[in-house]
Automatic annotation (TrEMBL), chain A:
Top-rank taxon, per record: Bacteria
Transmembrane segments: 15-37, 49-71, 102-123, 129-149, 170-192, 222-245, 257-283
Organism the protein comes from: Streptomyces polyasparticus
Alphabetically ordered keywords of this record: Cell inner membrane, Cell membrane, Membrane, Transmembrane, Transmembrane helix, Transport
InterPro entries cross-referenced by the UniProt entry: ABC_transp_permease (IPR001851)
Any Pfam family the entry gives: BPD_transp_2
Bilayer topology annotation: Multi-pass membrane protein
Subcellular location: Cell membrane
Keyword Transmembrane attributed: yes
Protein name (Swiss-Prot/TrEMBL): Autoinducer 2 import system permease protein LsrD
Length: 336, 516
C-alpha cells in the first residue's frame, strides 16, 4: 500500500507544489518577457514597462473575474459585452448629467456590472440554464441593446476626470490603471484564501460533495458571477479612459479572458487552478500580442494566435492530466 | 492402466424429464486478480423457473453477465441446447436466444414502445423503417402477454416502472429468446405490480421459456420457482428442488461464515445515554413510517438488502433526501432537516457510501477537504488553526506522504475515508451516520476505522452504521435494526447471528392476502 509517511519533500518539490498547475504559464511569461527584451531593449525602461502593464490591466482584471467563474465550473461569455455597455452607458450618463462626479458614474457602472452578473448567476443556478448559454444570451442582449440605443455610433464624450483612471498616472509616473490592477489582484488572491474561495473551488471540483458538506452551491456560484460582472465593470472604466467611447470597446474581450485563464492552467469544468496563474496568463497573452506587434506581425492575426493558444493549452493540459492520473493509480489503491 | 476417462461431471442433478436447455459448467471469473466466481455450474430446463439467490456480492450478477456475453469468463463452458457457446459480446448471446432484464432498464425514454422493442433491428420496407409492421408486431407480442395496457405508440417516458419492465420483456421476446434472465425484477415494484409480474413469469415459463430468476425476496422465490440455486462468495453452494426445502435452510446456505475479523470491544457499561436523535413516523417515497432512537454512546447498526431503504434512511436523517412526514428531534430540539446544511447545524454528519462522488473533492488537498464543512457552515467550532488540523489528522490516523497539502485523489481508499471522517469530526457532530464505512478499504485501515468509530461512541457520540457486510455490522453494533422494503422489519440485540438478520431482511415482501 502507499500509506507510508515519507520524509519531507525535497525543496524543488515544495516549489512545484506551491506553483501547482501554473508552472507552464510562469515559464511562458518569463520566456516572453525575455523575448521582448531581446526584440526591443528599451522595453524595460520604467515608463515603457508601466505602459505595458497599463495596457494589460483590463485583461488581467477580466481574467481574475473569469477565473472565479471558471473554477466554480461555469463560463462567463458576457464580460466583453459588459465592457462595451459600460463605456457606452458612462458616455450617455455624462450626456444627461454633465456635472456628475466621476466616482458616482464609476459606482453606477460597478453596480450595473453586479446586476448583470446576478442575473447570469440566478438564471444559471435557479433555472438550470447552462452558463455557456446564459452568458452567451446575455452577451447578445447587451450588444443588441447598445446597438439599438446608440444606433451604432455612440454619442457623447467622457470627461477628463473620468478618463484619468485609465489614462493618467499617480505621482506623475505610476499609472492609476496599474494600481487598480494590483488592488484587484490582491483582492482576488485574498478572496481565494478565504472560506468563500475554498468552497468555490470545492464546488467546481465536486458539486455533490460540496452540497452534502453544507455548501450553498447556488449562492457561491451566483457570487462568482456577480464578482465577474463587477470585474468587467472595472475593466470598462479603464478601457473607457484609455481608448474613449466606442461601440466596439469590449469586443472579443470575453474570449481573451477565457484564453488567459486557460493559459494559466486553470481546468475548464472547475476545481483546479490558481488565480495568480490566471492573471499571469493575461499578462502572457498581452506580452505575446506586444511581441507579435514588434515583430511586425499583422494585428489581424491576433485572434488566430489566440485560437491556437486556447486549443493548445486545453489539449496539453488534458494530456498531461490523464498521464499523471494513470501513473498514480497504478501505484496503489484498493479496488472497491 | 487407468480407467477410461470419467464422463463430464454435471454440476447438479436436473429434474429427470427433459434434457437441460442451458448448462453452465465450471465458470470462473476474476477481476483485477480478485476471483469472484469459482467453478460455478448451473443448468436450466425449458419451462422452468430457476431461482438464483445469495447475499450481496455472492456473484449472481456476475454469473448472469457471463451468460449474457457482457463478461468473458476466464474458464468454463456454456451450452445451449447441446451447442457449446463462447460469447464475447452481448449480441452473440442475444442471437443465441438469451435475454436479460437488468435492474436498470435499457430503454430510450423519448422513443415509442415499438421503437424500443425493435431498436437496432427495425423491419424495413424499400429501405425505410416500416413503422406499421413494427407497431403491428409489437402489438401482437403485447397481446400474447395478456392485458398489459400498453400501446406500441406510447412514449416510454409516459410509462410506469412496471410497464417499462413489461416493455423490456417484450423486447426480449421479440428476438425469440429461450432463456430469460431476470435480475431482481420486483425490487422497484409495488406489491400488486409484483403479483402481476409473477403471473407473467409463470405464463412465460408455461410457453416453454427457461427463466433464471434472481431475487432477494425469499417469499417470492418459494412461490415462483421450481428449483433454487444458492451462491455464496462466488461459489456454488447448493441447488435444490423448492418443494424439498424451506426458508431456514436457504438462509443458512446463504450466510453461515465465520466471524473472523477483529472488532474493538464494546463499551462495558451498559449503553443508554441520552437520546441524541429521535424519529417518529418518518416517511418519504422510499420509507414507510420509521421509528428510531439513536442514543449517545451507542452504535446502532442497520442491516438490510440493497434497495431495502437503508441508504434512504440515512439520507433522510441528513436532510439530503428529506422525510416528507414524521417528527424528528435532535438534541432535544424539534427539527426535521430539509437540507444537509440544516442537519449539519443540528450536529448530524453523514459519511456516504460513495466516497469519491459525494464525500471528497478529489482534486483538493487533504486540508481543504478536512476543513470543507467548517468553512461551509460557519458558526461552529473551527479547526482552521494548523495545530487543530494536525490534531484532527492524527486523530483519524491519516497516513499521507504529502501531509495536509496532498491531493486526496492520490490517497488509498482507506486514507480517503479517514479524510472524510476528519471532515465531519472538524464540525464536532453529535450524531454520526455511516453508510458502508469500510467499503473499498484495505484491512489495516478497516481496523483503524472500526477502532475510531468505537472510540467516538465512547466519547458520547450517537453512531449509526449501515453495512452490507454482516460480520462488520455484528462486530460493531450495540443493537441491530433490520430494514426490509422501506420499513424496520425488526430489532436484534448485539451479537445477533447472520441467520437472524437475513431472515428478517428477506422476510415477507409480497403479501398476497389483500387482493388475491
Amino acid at each position: 500500500m502507499t500509506t507510508t509517511t515519507a520524509p519531507t519533500p525535497a525543496p524543488y518539490k515544495r516549489l512545484t507544489a506551491a506553483l501547482g498547475t501554473g508552472i507552464p504559464v510562469y515559464a511562458l511569461l518569463v520566456v516572453l518577457l525575455v523575448a521582448l527584451a531581446v526584440t526591443d531593449p528599451s522595453f524595460y525602461e520604467l515608463d515603457r514597462f508601466l505602459a505595458f502593464v497599463k495596457r494589460a490591466a483590463p485583461l488581467v482584471i477580466l481574467a481574475a473575474g473569469q477565473y472565479l467563474v471558471i473554477v466554480s465550473g461555469e463560463f462567463d461569455l458576457s464580460v466583453g459585452a459588459i465592457v462595451t455597455a459600460g463605456v457606452v452607458v458612462a458616455a450617455e450618463l455624462y450626456g444627461s448629467f454633465a456635472d456628475a462626479h466621476w466616482l458616482v458614474i464609476s459606482l453606477a457602472l460597478v453596480l450595473g456590472g453586479a446586476i448583470v452578473g446576478l442575473a447570469n448567476g440566478l438564471i444559471t443556478t435557479a433555472l438550470r440554464v447552462p452558463s455557456f448559454i446564459t452568458t452567451l444570451g446575455m452577451m447578445l442582449i447587451l450588444e443588441g441593446a447598445v446597438f439599438y440605443w446608440t444606433g451604432g455610433s455612440p454619442k457623447g464624450v467622457l470627461p477628463e476626470d473620468f478618463r484619468a483612471l485609465g489614462r493618467n498616472s499617480a505621482f506623475g509616473w505610476l499609472p492609476w490603471a496599474v494600481l487598480v490592477c494590483l488592488a484587484v489582484g490582491a483582492f482576488a488572491v485574498w478572496l481565494m484564501r478565504r472560506d468563500f474561495g475554498r468552497t468555490l473551488i470545492a464546488t467546481g471540483d465536486s458539486e455533490r460533495t460540496a452540497a452534502l458538506s453544507g455548501v450553498r452551491v447556488h449562492r457561491v456560484r451566483v457570487l462568482a458571477f456577480v464578482l465577474s460582472g463587477v470585474a468587467a465593470a472595472l475593466a470598462a472604466i479603464l478601457v473607457g479612459g484609455f481608448s474613449g467611447v466606442s461601440a466596439q470597446a469590449g469586443r472579443g474581450l470575453e474570449f481573451e479572458a477565457i484564453t488567459a485563464v486557460v493559459l494559466g492552467g486553470v481546468v475548464l469544468g472547475g476545481g483546479r487552478g490558481s488565480v495568480i496563474a490566471a492573471m499571469a496568463g493575461a499578462f502572457s497573452l498581452q506580452a505575446l500580442f506586444t511581441l507579435l506587434n514588434l515583430q511586425g506581425v499583422s494585428g489581424a492575426l491576433e485572434s488566430t494566435v489566440q485560437g491556437v493558444i486556447v486549443i493548445a493549452a486545453v489539449g496539453l493540459g488534458a494530456a498531461n492530466w490523464s498521464r499523471i492520473r494513470r501513473r498514480s493509480h497504478s501505484s496503489g489503491g484498493t479496488p472497491s | 492402466m487407468p480407467a477410461t476417462p470419467a464422463p463430464p461431471e454435471s454440476p447438479q442433478e436436473s429434474p429427470g424429464e427433459a434434457a437441460p436447455l442451458l448448462t453452465m459448467r465450471n465458470v470462473s471469473k476474476s477481476f483485477l486478480g480478485v476471483r469472484v466466481l469459482h467453478d460455478v455450474g448451473l443448468d436450466l430446463v425449458a419451462g422452468e423457473v430457476h431461482a438464483l439467490v445469495g447475499e450481496n456480492g455472492a456473484g449472481k450478477s456476475t454469473l448472469m453477465k457471463v451468460l449474457a456475453g457482457e463478461h468473458v469468463p476466464d474458464s468454463g463452458t456454456i451450452e445451449l441446447d447441446g451447442t457449446a457457446h463462447a460469447f464475447t459480446h452481448p449480441k452473440q448471446a442475444q442471437a443465441a436466444g438469451i435475454g436479460i432484464i437488468h435492474q436498470e432498464f435499457a430503454l430510450l425514454e423519448h422513443r415509442t414502445v415499438a421503437e424500443n422493442v425493435f431498436l437496432g433491428r427495425e423491419p424495413t420496407r424499400y429501405g425505410m423503417v416500416d413503422r406499421r409492421a413494427m407497431e403491428r408486431r409489437t402489438g401482437q407480442l403485447l397481446a400474447e402477454l395478456g392485458e398489459t395496457g400498453i400501446s406500441p405508440r406510447t412514449y416510454v417516458r409516459e410509462l410506469s416502472v412496471a410497464r417499462r419492465q413489461t416493455v423490456e420483456i417484450v423486447k426480449a421476446l421479440a428476438s425469440d429468446v429461450r432463456v430469460l434472465v431476470m435480475d431482481e425484477p420486483t425490487a422497484p415494484l409495488a406489491d400488486h405490480e409484483a403479483r402481476l409480474l409473477h403471473d407473467l413469469v409463470r405464463r412465460l415459463a408455461d410457453r416453454g421459456l427457461g427463466i433464471l430468476y434472481i431475487s432477494h425476496r425469499l417469499r417470492e422465490v418459494f412461490e415462483l420457482s421450481g428449483r433454487i440455486t444458492v451462491l455464496k462468495d462466488g461459489r456454488h453452494i447448493t441447488t435444490v428442488a423448492t418443494a424439498a426445502t424451506d426458508t431456514d435452510a436457504i438462509v443458512r446456505a446463504m450466510v453461515g461464515r465465520d466471524l473472523s475479523a477483529y472488532y474493538p470491544p464494546r463499551a462495558t457499561a451498559d449503553q443508554g445515554g441520552e437520546i441524541a436523535l429521535a424519529l417518529r413516523g418518518g416517511r418519504n417515497r422510499r420509507l414507510k413510517g420509521i421509528d428510531l432512537d439513536l442514543r449517545a454512546g451507542e452504535i446502532t447498526g442497520i442491516a438490510g438488502l440493497q434497495g431495502s431503504g437503508r441508504t434512504s434512511l440515512a439520507r433522510a436523517l441528513f436532510g439530503a433526501a428529506p422525510f416528507s412526514e414524521g417528527e424528528m428531534t435532535v438534541g432535544g430540539r424539534k427539527l426535521r432537516p430539509r437540507s444537509p446544511r440544516e442537519a449539519i447545524r443540528a450536529g448530524i454528519a453523514l459519511v456516504t457510501e460513495d466516497r469519491k462522488g459525494e464525500g471528497l473533492a478529489l482534486r483538493q488537498s487533504v486540508r481543504d477537504n478536512a476543513l470543507l464543512v467548517t468553512r461551509a457552515v460557519p458558526g461552529q467550532q473551527r479547526a482552521t488553526a494548523a495545530r487543530a488540523l494536525a490534531d484532527l489528522l492524527e486523530r483519524v490516523r491519516l497516513q499521507a506522504r504529502g501531509g495536509p497539502d496532498q491531493q486526496v485523489q492520490f490517497l488509498s481508499g482507506g486514507n480517503q475515508q479517514k479524510v472524510v471522517i476528519a471532515k465531519w469530526l472538524a464540525a464536532a457532530p453529535k450524531v454520526l451516520l455511516f453508510d458502508e464505512p469500510t467499503r473499498g478499504v484495505d484491512v489495516g485501515a478497516k481496523a483503524a476505522i472500526h477502532t475510531l468509530v468505537r472510540d467516538l461512541a465512547k466519547e458520547g457520540l450517537a453512531v449509526l452504521i449501515i453495512s452490507s457486510e454482516l460480520p462488520e455490522l455484528i462486530g460493531m453494533s450495540d443493537r441491530i435494526l433490520v430494514m426490509s422494503d422501506g420499513h424496520l422489519a425488526g430489532e436484534l440485540p448485539a451479537g445477533a447471528s447472520e441467520e437472524d438478520i437475513m431472515r428478517l431482511a428477506t422476510g415477507p415482501a409480497v403479501e398476497g392476502s389483500d387482493a388475491a
